[in-house]
## 1
Amino acid sequence: MSNATPATGPHSANPAITTTSSVHDGPAIEAEGLRRGYSGGFEAVRGISFSVRRGEIFALLGTNGAGKTSTVELLEGLAAPSAGTARVLGHDPHRERAAVRPRIGVMLQEGGFPPELTVAETVRMWAGCTTHARPAAEALGATGLSGREGVRVKQLSGGERRRLDLALALLGRPEVLFLDEPTTGLDAEGRRDTWELVRALRDAGTTVLLTTHYLEEAETLADRLAIMHRGRIVLSGTPAQVTAARPARIRFTLPAGVPAGRLPLRLRAAEDAGRVEIRTTSLQDDLAALLRWAQEEGVRLDGLDARSASLEEAFLDIAAAAETVTDAPTPEPETAR
């Protein structure tokens, strides 16, 4: 493995954020026609294709049972695909595991570390299995666990255990980092700190693939994302591209005695107990028309709120639409997540 390269970018002051260079020039992660089936005929991943560029944060989203974890396990080399191909840093992660494993970091949903070991003992144990492991103090400092070295794993809070999971995933200065629900159990401050760390890793050249149920997290962190539903990718792109295709909304309350029917005809509105909502694909033009009308009519728009669609709104709309065109649900085994 080549020597560590210092980080660059806004977070480069953090000495723990280093990565390793590579001669591989193609995408860091590639999936082509990827499928994964389980006994009983259930297919958790149904022919998906996508790629992740080097130095990119890519989020894989979907409802429970969409196939996210099954997909990530294929990319990590933990299982062989039923069909299709997976490539990580130019290698098959399952058949060429020895070439891939030293160059990736994996943060699982649940670490499962021996509860009687201290944090320091756990890190030393993990470092013994890691190629060119960084000093434990660096990994613990980067994840906010400095000063907790002597605490037993069983005494850590849920959020601290997630921090330990992340620290261990960073020990080998990975070129590709897989994060499965990285901020579950963290408080708001811990979540923000983790976001900053992930951005710093990206700025230092690490490729990050994450799954998350926090759509704000994906919208904040991801350079690109894909939304899965029942084993298929139904939409992909940048967060801005995904939300741009959804209508923006304008909400306000009309005064008593002023019905929504008095609004300009171009503003198609829904009203519920005086609270009005307008969905629009021309937010600026329709908001301007609404404000002109209100000024001309002398109408006060209480609680006026205008905003583009959020990733959460887009996700819920996409999931609902996908649900109407897919087959009836198939019972999913416990191992297919």
## 2
Amino acid sequence: LKDGQYHIDFDRFRKDVQGCKLLILSNPHNPGGRVWTKEELSQIADICYENGTLVISDEIHADLTLPPYKHPTFALISEKAQMNSLVFMSPSKAFNMPGLASSYAIIENDELRHQFQVYMEASEFSEGHLFAYLSVAAAYSHGTEWLDQVVAYIKGNIDFTESYLKERIPAIRMIRPQASYLIFLDCRELGLSQEELNRLFVEDAHLALNEGTTFGKEG
């Protein structure tokens, strides 16, 4: 955590990825809200390619990238990224339709795509229902105006939360997201244990949040 945003420690990443067959990359990051730069993604692609680590880039929050940031799709970063990745996407977050179970994968590598399709079809995972197909087409073909308004609305909520915390609860710091509607709150200055923090939010503020501890020691 540096200057209010999460960054990748690439020296540690190179060590941790050794012997790892698969990396699931959260792009944009959840819950930190980071939009990874092309340079960062290029480093990830190079390291994983050289190490023989396949990359699954989870880009389900990509459509909710907040201005002025631009979302870089992992497979378009370089040839190494293109040949060594599966990009998973879905309109469910941006268009608020997870109940329709609409998702898809983009796989540029012919061999990888064949392996993936064989597995999906053999397991009967690949047959979507009628509304799943229609909803994806409708969202991406006719939903631009609606999505622009949603992104502006989310940005307004983020601005409000940031100013409210600074004015009323300065001990809670907000990691400002560059994408999506999730806000990670840094409550360390309150000096409370996890149990006390939960009591503060749930019992006193009547606000049930995801606990940072679910993200490991760093959370």
## 3
Amino acid sequence: MATSEPRGTENEEVRAESPTAPVTSPVTSPEQYIKHPLQNRWALWYFKNDKSKSWTENLRLISKFDTVEDFWALYNHIQQPSKLGFGCDYCLFKDGIKPMWEDDRNKLGGRWLMTLSKQQRHNDLDRYWMETVCVFLFSFCGWLTVLCITSYCAYVLQLLCLIGESFDEASEDVCGAVVNVRPKGDKIAIWTGNCQNRDAIMTIGQQYKERLSIPSKTLIGYQSHDDTSSKSGSTTKNMYSV
């Protein structure tokens, strides 16, 4: 993270002592060492279902970041969701919000939930999760800033172009995202902070579905955490759908 002032290059220090000292390498431009901040600080959590431990013991904080560069450094060094074992989760949340229903920022909220078939694990899971993450991070950052400093593959550039806009005012209602790897079908969800904030919820759901190019005939539903935690069967009713 950008926590310290950028230092001058060695050439700059030499010239300060001796104006006639030869320059043996070009001076680094500011764009090459100044990190590009995100609007929010984010935390990536990992959950592994070890039945010998409690739920909270199974949840582990991996890292926090607040710049574009630190996000890519982290993302490029962790396993993709499709490589995780069954029962494992990744949770990406704004710093200060824990990925659990009981957190004060989550307890009145809910989630947009997308369920994937087993066949989609190898074809769609990683792509959907990547695009979900980009929707969060770079909608708050500004896509022109990202494109100016990005030197990654064409696929990533396409993603950054795709998610360059934001959820507008509804962005403030977003708490985080979760990917669950499960034997019967994986799940990806966007968590929001207030299940009664219908306008914000519908804006998020509609734009999220559009950006992931989910077919119009495929419905995704929004469920409150309260309904999910108190459900008596295997399914939870949807409050909203798009």
## 4
Amino acid sequence: MTNDDEQFLRRAIGLAAKARAAGNPPFGSLLVGPDGEVLAEDMNTSISDSDITAHPELKLARWAARELTPEAAATTIMYTSCQPCGMCSAAIERSGLGRVVFALSTEQLSGLKPVGENAGARLDGPALYDEARVPVEGYYV
């Protein structure tokens, strides 16, 4: 962790505070290029946008995939106030970002929430492998 990493994390934490002040969940993120320039930043707007997917990490990953070449995306660093959730992690992976630096871990965040909040849906599967693989088989070659 460098001094620059800490400064950018503080900026992400500031965006999280701004999100909370606006009535949204307290999460903020920024995307930094290899020269230290902030390319984009955002905060959670899931309440104000009535969009459960309006996480800042997802919005920045989508921005990077749309606006940057794969080579440029690979040189970026995302700084975020909390460890990205599964949805955001998948988007970050697909967008090809080079590195993610976060402040609070998922475990630390969970310790700050009331017990039982967001228990999650029950997942059942895998199932019907022989049928489900047909449209997928050969796609990733």
